[in-house]
Structures are given as structure tokens and as C-alpha cells.
């Protein structure tokens, strides 16, 4: 239970960071080329675009990842408690 809990605790965070930094790389490349990033369409545009947070664009990914991390934390705590009780 502890191994699965640790996997659920850490893996969603790495996935979220990976997806976030992947998009950040595209945004940064667009800005360095003199463009403006369109967060909704995920394309580089010529005109300024409004900022739309990542939570508003991908609520299932963000909230689901955090929920899996919390489930992993609870599983780790339960696994440590059960081992100590034996």
C-alpha cells in the first residue's frame, strides 16, 4: 500500500509539471519571436491575447492530479499506520 501511495503521491505532480513546462516552453518561444500567446487556442498570435489560467483551461487535469496526490498521501499514511499497529 505504501508503494502505490508513493506512486500516486509523486507521479501526478511530475505529470502536471511536465505538461505545464511543455506549454511554458511554447509560450516563451512565441514571446521571444515577438508574438503573443493565445492560451485558449494554444497558438502564437500577432495581436495581444487575454491570459487564461491553466486551471480554467484544464480543470480536470489539475484537480484530478491534485486529488490523486491526496489519495496517495492518505494511502501512505494508512500504510504506515497499519505497519506500526502489527
Automatic annotation (TrEMBL):
Record key words, sorted: Membrane, Transmembrane, Transmembrane helix
Chain segments annotated as transmembrane: 60-82
Key word Membrane present: yes
Protein name, per record: Transmembrane protein
Organism encoding this protein: Vreelandella neptunia
